[in-house]
Specification:
single chain; alpha+beta; three-stranded antiparallel beta sheet; 60% helix
Length: 160
């Protein structure tokens, strides 16, 4: 009977210590310990009580969205300006060459330049959010176990 109880205690320890860890991969993707990709809506719903995680995660996702809008807006403005310059007739009715403004090239380049630090910063925020999430899930697990011998007998101590 003692062997069964001891085996059950060690088996329970392994169950208590089993915890889900989260892994951040590039592009703002978060995976669980089974290597399944977790959607942003699932993460927000499941960890709605963890305000530290939600604050960092939502901030990172907002930075990602703003960075994408600026990057693709800058690329689009450059491509549209270039296409328009190629398709428009550069010669007017008098035979003179039209002067075209290069302002949209500069606007597009500025948007792309602004988007780069924003897009770099979003990954740091989401990575920090995953670290906060992993630390908060560890707090609820067993930190240590020890076998205690004293004058009253033998015991198993679990510290949470």
């Amino acid at each position: 009977m003692k062997k069964i109880i001891i085996c059950a205690c060690f088996f329970m320890f392994s169950l208590c210590n089993a915890q889900e860890t989260f892994i951040y991969k590039s592009g703002g993707r978060i995976f669980n310990s089974d290597n399944e990709k977790l959607s942003p809506s699932y993460l927000r719903e499941r960890f709605s009580d963890n305000t530290d995680f939600l604050e960092l995660y939502n901030s990172g996702r907002t930075k990602k969205t703003i960075g994408n809008i600026l990057l693709y807006g800058g690329i689009t403005s450059i491509v549209v300006k270039h296409y328009k310059g190629l398709t428009d007739n550069p010669i007017d009715s008098n035979g003179n060459i039209k002067n075209t403004s290069n302002t949209m090239y500069f606007v597009g380049a500025a948007l792309i330049a602004i988007s780069i630090p924003i897009k770099i910063g979003f990954s740091n925020k989401i990575d920090n959010a995953v670290d906060v999430l992993n630390i908060s899930t560890r707090k609820s697990s067993v930190n240590s176990t020890s076998l205690i011998f004293d004058s009253n007998g033998i015991g198993l101590s679990m510290t949470f």
